[in-house]
Design a protein that fits this description.
The chain is built from 35 helices and 31 strands. The protein is an alpha/beta fold and about 900 residues long. Bound molecules: adenosine-5'-diphosphate and magnesium ion (2 copies).
Length: about 900
């Protein structure tokens, strides 16, 4: 039979899966010899079984009894013993902290008899004992019996009658106990359970059950915490911060979670218990003041905090209680911090010698770095915050409030910055979301439509700002305090904090971006920390990082940000603008001469494009993808043109008629799967040849240029061979060398990679298309239409377009990598989908043995950092 119960002396901090974070760390502190009230932890395993079977697993009762008896022996009193009671708390604690989501009950073991025993124990302190008793009924009623907490709160308020809680006397609390018992009787039809063992058993089960409370489920979904972990339960002997002014309770950080600086950061409340500190029943005092109140306790606390920092080698937060001049530690964990503090703390700890730089790199994340790269609101600006919603997609956005997608598009077209405000968004709002600087909703969480789509677009979004009353019809919303914002009023939203401001808040560029851009002054502590971490990540990573860039400006920025080449230079934009006409000529050409003429006109323009990019990259490799989209994308819209021709009737221009016929001929039901990529190269003579010639000529013109020619959408080696032979002939003619390779973005290409590698000198995984075709998702349609539903239902925890789907798409990548290299051991492997900038996907690429990732210029620092972290934390499957 599994062991379900661990004494605090038996566990340690590495057992979070089994004991939860709180239990594992209570055990760790116990073993460190810190003053932790004795107790034991019931495992998450027991919880999982309980939730599966609907009852406590066999043997658990006895195991708990054994540990309780041992605890009683140690404490010299029995649970709820009438003349001298042992009291315990029953506390939830999952692997990941879920603040406020689950339950804790204090003072278990009190009843009408043992309350008198407690009085005696506390040297006749009646007030304290009755206060503890009423707290038990209140917490038990609320969390175990599901009674509305308001009922207890109201009764307390009524009793206080405007008095401070310190002014309440023993008799008040005694009366409150009777009132509370009445509430329990009324609400449950039963008396408050007087048997201490019943109390404990019911509380344990209630904690288990709280794992599946609706708000806990919702929270887990938002924070992407797996649903099947379960929670542990800690049974901890009570210590009392509410037995006089020489007692109290507090919380503290071992260093500032905002700046990382060492110092004393915390709050303390005298004569209080448990959650009183955070509940704000009275004003807390700064922790420094404890030094004056009780120097020995203060000094001991400082020493313990130092011990914890040195032991955990990180910022810790703690909960503690002082009982009549004796300090007790009730909780610790590695504390949450802001993105900036994460970088600063990692470097500070390395400077202190507590961790090495390898570890410092693993202590920060690409997501945190990305957060530091967003422009932000000027911290010194005067602001008028009207509410806070959920921080769904980071950034700082300012604009005029608009309440419909149409208005957003209209005003944006007129050059205005707008914020789209909706109760919630749906697929019809897509155009407005694209047009807006940011999106604000009053309903829905981090997996709502607005949040998912905005994150996908990289657009600032605050969602679920529930205090706002949005009226689309009246084109306005109201905020607390009677603030009314009508269409056209300027608001500012902070997608990193969730704050919503009235009026324009000035935006300042991120100092971290300025540093990447090459600003040399490193006064800023944060910038110095980022520099140290990035330098070490670069020295550590195996993956190279390239950029997706198709013009000289992006290429130059990418290089400043640390790109080691271009992994994807798209050529289609080079057919837009004035050049559309030339594409039109190409499509309309009715003879070889006409077609050659059109191509000949395009070639020098293309060459000039490539020359610029080769120059910007100064000898670093540049992977150029031959044209990929279907040609009709470059032609006028079918509907518009047919209306034009129809209206003109007989007077319609001959050319318009010809174009219309061509558009009609080229129209596809499903362009994603139509005439595009390598298929164009096979079907339209001369198109690819022109591009290859332009690349070759450009490479010849720029000293040291390194071109890699990439063929998109290949599914069969025969397609590639056809195009490659022609390309090599042209390269030889011009007299330059270049690699010729292919994208792997059609499942068949991945599955026949061994054959394709016969012809390809490199593979680049186009995981956007590969994801579309593996899942059968048309990205443009599905994301807006039903992804929020899929996320809500848990079909996947994160969109497969955001993070590479390791099981499906990732499997194809591994097959292709392995079989490609079996054919051609020096085959170069990269990825150029948007996944190239996604942390989890980068770790996958490292593990799968790829040579490089390629991502948008702005994501390059994130990719460098994550590639470094991947090298430090994940094992590689491949031998190389
Ligand atoms: P949470 O996870 O919400 O912080 P806790 O289990 O830590 O919940 O408990 C809530 C409050 O009760 C905390 O302030 C904690 O310090 C206090 N508390 C828990 N157990 C005890 C105990 N045995 N003695 C005194 N205070 C306790
Ligand atoms: Mg706590
Ligand atoms: Mg593609």
């Amino acid at each position: 039979m599994p062991k379900y119960v661990y004494d605090f002396t038996e566990g340690n901090k590495d057992l979070k899966d089994l004991l939860g974070g709180k239990g594992a760390n209570l055990a760790e502190m116990t073993n460190l010899g810190l003053p932790v009230p004795p107790g034991f932890t019931i495992t998450t395993d027991a919880c999982r079984r309980f939730l599966e079977d609907g009852g406590l697993p066999e043997g658990l009762d006895e195991e708990i009894s054994r540990h309780l008896t041992a605890l009683e022996g140690r404490m010299g009193r029995r649970l709820g013993q009438a003349d001298d009671p042992l009291l315990v708390s029953v506390r939830s604690g999952a692997k990941f902290s879920m603040p406020g989501m689950m339950e804790t009950v204090l003072n278990i073991g009190l009843n009408d008899q043992s309350v008198h025993g407690l009085v005696k124990q506390a040297g006749g302190n009646e007030r304290f004992a009755w206060d503890s008793y009423r707290r038990l009924i209140q917490m038990f009623g609320k969390t175990v019996q599901g009674i509305d907490g308001e009922l207890f709160d109201e009764a307390l308020e009524e009793l206080k009658h405007g008095r401070d809680d310190l002014e309440l006397e023993a008799a008040d609390f005694q009366r409150l106990v009777e009132t509370y018992k009445g509430i329990v009787r009324e609400q449950t039809g039963q008396d408050f359970p007087a048997d201490p063992h019943d109390q404990m058993r019911m509380a344990v089960m209630a904690v288990f059950e709280s794992w599946n409370a609706p708000r806990a489920i919702l929270y887990r979904r938002q924070e992407r915490i797996p649903a099947d972990l379960g929670t542990a339960v800690n049974v901890c002997s009570m210590v009392f911060g509410n037995c006089g002014m020489d007692s109290g309770t507090g919380v503290a950080f071992t260093r500032d979670p905002g700046s990382g600086h060492q110092g004393v950061y915390g709050d303390y409340l005298q004569n209080a218990q448990g959650e009183d500190v955070v509940a704000g029943i009275r004003n807390t005092m700064p922790l420094q003041d404890l030094e004056r109140l009780d120097k020995p306790v203060y000094d001991e606390l400082m020493k313990i905090m130092e011990t914890l920092e040195n032991h955990y080698r990180d910022l810790c937060d703690i909960e503690f209680t002082v009982e009549r001049g004796k300090l007790w530690m009730l909780q610790t964990r590695v504390g949450k911090r802001t993105a900036g503090a994460a970088f600063r703390i990692a470097v500070q700890l390395a400077d202190q010698g507590l961790i090495d730089l390898d570890e410092a790199v693993t202590r920060v994340s690409g997501a945190q770095l990305a957060q530091l790269m967003f422009p932000r609101f000027d911290g010194d600006a005067k602001t008028n915050k009207i509410t806070t919603g959920m921080n769904a997609s980071p950034g700082a956005a300012v604009g005029k409030a608009v309440f419909s997608s149409e208005r957003a598009v209209e005003l944006a077209a007129a050059g205005e910055d707008v914020i789209l405000v909706r109760r919630e968004t749906n697929p019809d709002d897509l155009a407005g979301m694209i047009a807006a600087q940011g999106v604000l909703t009053s309903r829905g969480g981090k997996t709502s439509h607005a949040a998912v789509v905005a994150r996908g677009m990289g657009k600032t979004c605050v969602c679920g700002a529930e205090e706002l009353e949005v009226s689309t019809k009246e084109r306005r919303f109201t905020a607390p305090g009677g603030v009314v914002v009508s269409e056209g009023d300027v608001i500012s939203i902070d997608g990193s904090s969730g704050a919503v401001y009235l009026g324009e808040v000035p935006v300042v560029p991120s100092p971290v971006v300025e540093y990447f851009e090459g600003a040399t002054d490193q006064d800023d502590e944060l910038v110095r920390a980022v520099h140290r971490i990035m330098t070490h990540a670069d020295a550590t990573r195996r993956l190279k990082v390239r950029a997706n860039a198709d013009n000289a400006e992006d290429a130059a920025r990418a290089r400043r940000f640390g790109a080691e080449g271009i992994g994807l230079c798209r050529t289609e934009h080079m057919f837009l603008g004035d050049r559309r006409q030339l594409v039109e000529d190409l499509v309309l050409a009715s003879s070889k001469e006409e077609r050659d003429q059109a191509l000949a006109a395009l070639e020098p323009l293309q060459k000039a494009d490539f020359v610029e990019i080769f120059q910007a990259m100064e000898g670093l490799p540049v992977t150029i993808r031959l044209i990929d989209p279907p040609l009709h994308e470059f032609l006028p819209d079918y509907t518009e043109l047919s209306v034009k021709v129809a209206l003109a009737g007989d007077r319609a221009e001959e050319k318009d008629r010809r174009v219309l016929a061509a558009v009609k001929r080229l129209h596809e039901q499903n362009p994603m799967l139509g005439l595009r990529g390598v298929r164009l190269g096979l079907v339209i003579p001369g198109l690819f040849a022109m591009q290859v010639r332009a690349i070759a000529e450009a490479a010849k013109a720029v000293e040291g240029a390194r071109a890699e020619i990439m063929i998109p959408l290949v599914g069969a080696v025969q397609e590639l061979e056809y195009v490659k032979d022609e390309a090599q002939r042209i390269l030889a003619e011009v007299g330059v060398e270049a690699l010729v390779g292919t994208m792997i973005e059609v499942p068949r290409a991945a599955l026949t990679a061994g054959q394709i590698a016969e012809a390809a000198e490199f593979f680049s995984f186009g995981t956007n298309d590969l994801t579309q075709m593996t899942w059968g998702f048309s990205r443009d349609d599905v994301e807006a239409a039903f992804f929020s539903k899929y996320l809500e239902l848990g079909v996947f925890g994160v969109s497969p377009f955001e993070s590479l789907d390791r099981d499906g798409v990732g499997r194809l990548v591994r097959i292709a990598a392995e079989e490609g290299r079996a054919t051609r051991p020096d085959l170069k492997l990269g990825i150029c989908g948007e996944h190239g900038g996604d942390p989890d996907s980068i770790h996958f690429c490292h593990q799968a043995g790829l040579d490089y990732v390629s991502c948008s210029p702005f994501r390059i620092p994130v990719a460098r950092l994550e590639a470094g972290r991947a090298a430090l934390t994940s094992a590689e499957s491949d031998t190389r």
